[in-house]
């Protein structure tokens, strides 16, 4: 799994610096006396799509920072960065490289995501109707155990046998489930720990939909009385380890969770992000001094313009 990149990308910061005030300083020479100056490089770069993208990204990042920078501290960024380091452990550097990132660019990426989050909250606030709709789909985060059987008739029969053994167990059902998971589960990543699965809620996109739907119907200490079929994986038997009590009303604590879920969903919606970025730019009112770059923000301000056909306004870096 790769790190998720910020919607604006982390486009060539070093290159971006060259788009500032370029002069006639020589940046490269060739045998025979020919040379390339900063101004020549700038003139060439600004005519390219990538050069224009670097400038637009710089403008938007500066606008976001001006409007919301005080809300995102270095401490917040480092905390999330360290969470990634802990999550990936010894594989952290490898995952960074696989995602085309460095430690510095990951931190910049995290900061941009946080700035966008605040921009989304201000320019696209969550409505009461959205909260109510999200609440209908809401499920608290739960922890389950599962036993996975093969995706064939034998797997179906084994699942039925596991359920029968659970039904007839005289002692603690969870203890019995752990024994059966170690004996029957075909998933080596969880069999030895009794089928224990990472906690998940209604927004989880990595868990099989049929698995989630069946799990959310269980109360603590209950297990599925019929095998849960997944075309991708096979047959599941699921045990609910944690409390699974959904509140009847939207409490202040639940409201915060719902707002976070909705904001996260909006940040994954390129159309909504584009609309928010447009508002950020409009408030910033950037003044572009170079006539050749006057239209560099048109992909954001006017998505239907000819300039917008050149790039994806919500994800210009193609990430």
TrEMBL record:
Query: Belongs to which family?
Result: Belongs to the PrsA family.
The membrane topology of this protein is: Lipid-anchor
Q: What does this protein do?
A: Plays a major role in protein secretion by helping the post-translocational extracellular folding of several secreted proteins.
| Stretches assigned to the PpiC domain | 139-242
Name the UniProt record assigns to this protein: Foldase protein PrsA
Q: Which InterPro entries match?
A: Foldase_PrsA, PPIase_dom_sf, PPIase_PpiC, PrsA_foldase, Trigger_fact/SurA_dom_sf
Q: Where mainly found?
A: membrane
Signal sequence bounds? 1-20
EC supergroup of this enzyme: isomerase
- PANTHER family linked: FOLDASE PROTEIN PRSA (PTHR47245:SF1), PEPTIDYLPROLYL ISOMERASE (PTHR47245)
Catalyzed chemical reaction(s)? [protein]-peptidylproline (omega=180) = [protein]-peptidylproline (omega=0)
EC number(s) per entry: 5.2.1.8
Task: Kindly give the Pfam families that the UniProt entry links to this protein.
Answer: Rotamase_3
Lineage: superkingdom: Bacteria
This protein's UniProt keywords: Cell membrane, Isomerase, Lipoprotein, Membrane, Palmitate, Rotamase, Signal
Q: One GO MF term, please?
A: peptidyl-prolyl cis-trans isomerase activity
The listed locations are:
Cell membrane
């Amino acid at each position: 799994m790769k790190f998720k990149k910020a919607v604006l990308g982390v486009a060539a910061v070093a290159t971006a610096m060259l788009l500032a005030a370029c002069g006639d300083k020589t940046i490269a020479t060739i045998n025979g006396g020919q040379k390339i100056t900063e101004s020549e490089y700038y003139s060439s770069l600004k005519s390219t799509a990538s050069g224009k993208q670097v400038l637009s990204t710089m403008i938007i990042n500066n606008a976001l920072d001006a409007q919301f920078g005080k809300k995102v501290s270095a401490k917040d960024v480092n905390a999330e960065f360290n969470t990634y380091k802990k999550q990936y452990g010894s594989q952290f550097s490898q995952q960074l490289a696989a995602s085309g990132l460095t430690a510095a660019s990951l931190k910049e990426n995290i900061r941009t995501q946080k700035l966008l989050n605040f921009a989304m909250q201000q320019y696209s606030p969550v409505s009461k109707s959205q909260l109510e709709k999200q609440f209908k789909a809401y499920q608290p985060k739960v922890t389950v155990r599962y036993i996975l059987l093969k995706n064939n008739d034998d797997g179906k029969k084994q699942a039925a046998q596991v359920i029968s053994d659970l039904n007839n167990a005289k002692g603690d059902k969870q203890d019995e489930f752990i024994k059966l998971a170690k004996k029957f589960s075909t998933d080596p990543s969880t069999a030895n720990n009794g089928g224990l699965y990472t906690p998940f809620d209604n927004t989880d996109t990595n868990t099989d939909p049929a698995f989630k739907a069946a799990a959310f119907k269980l109360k603590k200490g209950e297990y599925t009385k019929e095998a849960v079929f997944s075309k991708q994986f096979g047959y599941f038997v699921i045990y609910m380890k944690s409390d699974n009590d959904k509140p009847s009303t939207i409490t202040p604590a639940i409201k915060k969770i719902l707002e976070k879920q909705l904001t996260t969903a909006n940040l994954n919606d390129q159309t909504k992000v584009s609309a928010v970025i447009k508002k950020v730019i409009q408030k910033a009112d950037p003044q572009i001094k170079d006539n050749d770059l006057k239209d560099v923000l048109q992909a954001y301000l006017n998505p239907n313009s000819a300039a917008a056909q050149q790039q994806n306004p919500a994800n210009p870096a193609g990430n």
